[in-house]
Design goal:
The protein has about 300 residues and is mainly alpha-helical. It is about 60% helix and about 5% strand. Helix 5 crosses helix 10, helix 10 packs antiparallel against helix 11 and helix 15 crosses helix 16. About 25% of the residues are buried.
Length: about 300
Amino acid sequence: MDPLFDFPSTPNVHHRELVMRMTSSLESGKYSDLTIKCRGREFHVHRVVLCTASKVFATACDGAFKEAQNGKIDLSEDDPGAIQRMLEYLYSADYDEMDHPHKEEKESSDEHQCSAVTQSPKPSPIKANDATSDEWAQTPRSLSRVTLGRLAELDGEFQGVIASAPLNNVLVYATADKYELQSLKKMSRGKFQSCCRYVWDGDDILTVLQLVYQTTPSADRGLCDIILEVYSNHRDQLMHNVRLPEIFENDATLAFDVFSRVKEDLDTRVSTLEKCYDDLSDSLQQAQKGSRKKRKHGPR
């Protein structure tokens, strides 16, 4: 075949090209017809992308609403990082769940606070020391692609970047729920579950536990059951944490769920021990019967 026309034409190649064009449109804002404002930041986006994905945005941009008239949507109640990741997803079908210092140093500190809706504290953005851009470029975009071996190779600062992922995924999950983006909600849950493969510091677990319960409706168990499993796996470490009493006092639902999970775990342990005891008793009884039978008949 003529080399001029010998080029890959697989769907994956076309998909990557489409993602690159869409991502470029978001980054440049070219041909945008809608502006999203969020705590001092502006995102120049395209109605066709937002409104075809979300009924909430479609309703805001249709009819006589002011958003439809002036082409601006104020999302100041939301977390800027979560809005940015939502837009990344809408334009590329994925989002970067981790905070990267070289990006965040360009943003104001108040943009890194949690959403006013959640009223929950978020750790300060991690500041870069002397890591180069090439080093940060090698940091994975998603923890679902990180192996434990790869994690062990990263130094403390890189591990700090990875530690930002659980909080970010929780905020994206809440944002997806608010704007009725079910596929994004599903993705953020999957990314959050991947985060839970890693051993966290006790304070990190409690911070994420609080945020999950502050941003999730009581009927939505999407993240609650995952973080309760994490709590259960680290229960011995967490039971002595000085923050725990205040957390339980401030959130009765959280406290009830934690105690219910602990009781469930203890009941399972008791049931397992009882079964082991019964099995051991049966074995001993069989052994005793065999021993008595030998003594009764005596040696031949």
